[in-house]
Write a structure and sequence with these properties.
Elements: E1 6-11, H1 18-30, E2 33-39, H2 50-63, E3 71-77, H3 81-87, E4 92-96, H4 103-116, E5 121-125, H5 129-132, H6 136-144, H7 155-171
Parallel strand pairs: 1-2, 1-4, 2-3, 4-5
The structure holds adenosine-5'-diphosphate.
Adenosine-5'-diphosphate binds near residues 17, 95 and 136.
Length: about 170
């Protein structure tokens, strides 16, 4: 039997969207084991704590209809991505690519990561048309202003967002 191919899908998942889930489902066709790495330090002042983000990803992944057979696990990380990949024996980093907006950032990151570790390849996946444009940042903006985010996240994540915004407006 050949060695199982292990992949890491890193992100901030603040919160997990249907776009992320689309990529995760596709990734299960590409690797045998998929480790979803939830970045502790996002540099983006996250709306949800690391524990909340991991818990939401975990719940959604358990309910996800996978396209492939990969075993999926969710882990927080706060080290260099390449060190995290090495710590789980991954040979592939999986990233999602949205139209042109992600290209420059992803291109630079993949290039620099390749310099740090030549053994690990970055592979880009595209979500379906209806999930292409979803970004956590916009979901949060729409949710904060009371717009309907039901098309972009699961009913559970939607509820978490509604509650978080209610807490924040109570504090204000
Ligand atoms: P976001 O950019 O929405 O805050 P993350 O930082 O958690 O999300 O992104 C993790 C990875 O998932 C990145 O590679 C990002 O490009 C990808 N991704 C996020 N949303 C989508 C989407 N709707 N379609 C394709 N890829 C996506």
């Amino acid at each position: 039997m050949s060695t199982p191919r292990i992949g890491v899908y890193p992100g901030s998942f603040d919160p997990i969207t249907n776009g992320h889930l689309d990529i995760i489902s596709r990734a299960t066709k590409v690797v045998d084991r998929l480790v979803i790495g939830v970045a502790k330090n996002t540099g983006k002042d996250p709306l949800f704590s690391i524990d909340e983000r991991v818990e939401m990803v975990d719940t959604e992944v358990k309910l996800l209809e996978k396209a492939g057979d990969a075993v999926v696990e969710v882990r927080p990380f706060d080290i260099l991505l390449m060190d995290f990949a090495e710590s789980v024996d991954a040979s592939v980093i999986l990233r999602g690519l949205r139209a042109v907006s992600d290209f420059e950032y992803e291109f630079q990151m993949a290039g620099m990561n390749a310099r740090l570790n030549k053994q690990v390849e970055t592979v880009f996946l595209m979500a379906s048309d209806r999930h292409q444009f979803i970004a956590s940042r916009f979901v949060k903006e729409i949710g904060r202003l009371g717009g309907d985010i039901g098309h972009f996240v699961s009913p559970r994540v939607k509820q978490r967002l509604v509650s978080r915004f209610a807490e924040l407006s109570d504090e204000a």
